[in-house]
Design brief:
The protein has 313 residues and is α/β, with parallel strands linked by helices. The chain has ten helices and 18 strands.
């Protein structure tokens, strides 16, 4: 199944009548990943019918409240619902202290383990990998410690070429290794190259999340060629000075990063509460990078191989 992004929150700083602070869910392989967890995220999960069971990874970009004030509430609910499985939380180092204090002083008794991975705002860093995905963090320039995240599907198994398998009478017991890319040695001692026995798997898809950041072309190297890029777009270009002052970006700047990085698709979000209507914001971005969409709450985007294929539900 293609990885999918669900938009739960798209507002900057404060909630509005229409929008909630940042949060998204990425479904990838057999895993569900939450990216940022602003206030109201739990209500949004309920509203859009997304269960938190099976949610084992939560990524927090930085400690401005609009990106994590929903986290302790979600942890509390997980505890009350009897969660047992490990929860992996990735975020700035002080987040661990904050959560420990909140858990201690609220008298919460967790029946599950939290494994915490501190992010490094100084450089690009591998965080973790499993059967479904590989996670890397990279620095963003914001007013406080802030990182973006790159999530790539894990390497997939190669497809067996049944015609070749029959031709060389290769036993089923060897399929596992062949799917992993191993060569096969015939009883005669002749070695068959794996390329003779398999077809390429589907390409690994990738998603990059650029949370709050000033316009910064250093980002281009981190997100180069990803299928889908999320980039904050707090303001429009007529507020560019304000964007720079507060270490945020405009729609035009987000689109410029997408264009420079040659990504497949751009999603913009983290809209200032001053904008009731987002169509002009979208048009501003599309002038620079046509395959752009708004991160509208309740929308689902498929990470596509080609930039034309994009599915909303
Ligand atoms: Zn923010
Ligand atoms: Zn921020």
């Amino acid at each position: 199944m293609n990885p999918e992004i669900y938009i739960l929150g798209s507002s900057s700083a404060t909630p509005t009548r229409e929008r909630h602070p940042s949060s998204q869910i990425l479904k990838i392989g057999s895993e569900k990943i939450m990216i940022d967890c602003g206030e109201g995220t739990q209500s949004q999960l309920i509203k859009f019918g997304i269960r938190h069971t099976g949610l084992d990874y939560i990524l927090i970009s930085h400690l401005h409240g609009d990106h994590y004030f929903g986290l302790i509430g979600l942890i509390s609910t997980m505890s009350l619902m009897g969660r047992k499985q490990v929860l992996h939380i990735i975020g700035p180092p002080p987040l661990k202290q904050i959560l420990d204090l909140q858990i201690l002083h609220s008298g919460m008794t967790l029946k599950f383990e939290i494994i915490f991975y501190p992010t490094n705002p100084g450089r690009q860093e591998f965080v973790l990998s499993n059967q479904s995905f590989e996670l890397t963090s990279f620095p963003l320039k914001h007013r406080i410690h802030c990182t973006g995240f790159l999530i790539r599907e894990s390497k997939k198994e190669r497809h067996i070429n049944m015609e070749a398998i029959q031709q060389y009478k290769i036993p089923v017991a060897s399929f596992k290794g062949i799917k992993r890319g191993e060569n096969f040695v015939l009883p005669s001692g002749e070695e068959l190259d794996n390329a003779l026995l398999t077809f390429d798997p589907e390409p690994c898809r990738s998603y990059a999340y650029c949370s709050d950041t000033i316009f910064d072309t250093d980002i281009v190297a981190y997100v180069k060629g990803v299928n889908t890029l999320y980039h904050e777009s707090t303001y429009m270009k007529n507020n560019q000075e304000r964007a720079t002052l507060y270490f945020h970006s405009t729609a035009e700047q987000a689109a410029t990063i997408a264009k420079m990085a040659k990504v497949g698709h751009l999603i913009i979000g983290h809209f200032s509460s001053r904008y009731d209507h987002l169509q002009p914001m979208l048009e501003e971005a599309r002038e620079v990078f046509p395959n752009t969409d708004l991160a509208e709450e309740g929308e689902k985007f498929m990470l596509s191989v080609t930039k034309e294929v994009l599915v909303h539900s």
